[in-house]
């Protein structure tokens, strides 16, 4: 099946639910089986993952991608091809990347390789990846280098920010709303804490790809009626930190700078692969071989991906995927030519991986 035809079949399934995402794992497993690939489906807490391995050698190259998507309007699951682009939910993020991996994997199976290649397809990246990619890593499905084919405009992304989600609870003193001077407003105290956090030096450190870490005031819960000074408030903060920074030090600095209490909801590592890593050099060679006119630029991602689970084990993991835009939005699309280019890059890289 042609790559675009395969992608259209995947797009037609609204895989924003566990049931539909699992359906695509079964579909992909059958598609690969019909083309001579023998893999296994693993189930963890109801979420399915697919793993297959080809080749022989001491080193293992991993192709990793997710078949789940964020929710979308019904028409987004009716793919539209126009002007060299395919529009629809999941076209860029990241079913096109999965298609390129699958097609490359099929074509590599009959070639004598100097390494093992492991294909991983998962179903819960958009909600954290804890039941699939994290599970696979913990179960030993690891290797020497990982490519997650998230959309990157065919540029290698060697860094991504880490993530800290935390709740900050502030206290106050209740009073009548007409006499606020007799109370202590917990919501106002929370905003003072927020300003103190934003100005922390550790969160304003920069790197080659990032001006600073970011702090998003994502949630706030405080007060219950108009005519009372609120005596409690909880802020939910989403901090995306520059990957070279120690996240535990960030939390310590926050605790020292504010009056409120801090509770960590989750702390996830970033990705940091040196631009001069030998595998990055090999990948650049493959990109230039397939696309001589392409100006290869190492980049960093603001959002996270399943690459972080491999990175947490010291395994170099990057993102590199097709060209596209507006993922998670109504105008999401992928550049069709870039799917075939990505497939060729993956094949070339795998053949020379050592």
Structure description:
The chain is of the alpha+beta class. It is built from nine helices and 17 strands. A hairpin with a 2-residue loop joins strand 4 and strand 5. The longest helix has 18 residues, at 91-108. The mean pLDDT is 97.
Order of helices and strands: HHEEEEEHEHEEEHEEHEEHEHEEEH
The order of strands across the largest sheet is 1-2-6-3-7-15
Arithmetic mean of pLDDT = 97
Structural class: alpha+beta
Task: Report the strand count.
Answer: 17
The level of helicity is 25-40%
Termini separation comes to 30 Å
Number of helices: 9
Taking Cα atoms only, what radius of gyration do you get, to the nearest Å?
23 Å
Strand content: 25-35%
Query: How would you describe the shape?
Result: elongated
> Which stretches of 5+ consecutive residues score pLDDT under 50?
none
What name is given to the CATH topology of the largest domain?
Aminopeptidase
> Largest beta sheet, briefly?
6 strands, mixed
Using the 3D structure, state the CATH architecture of the largest domain. 3-Layer(aba) Sandwich
Brief rundown of the structure:
31% of the residues lie in helices and 26% in strands. With 354 residues, the protein is α+β, with helices and mostly antiparallel strands.
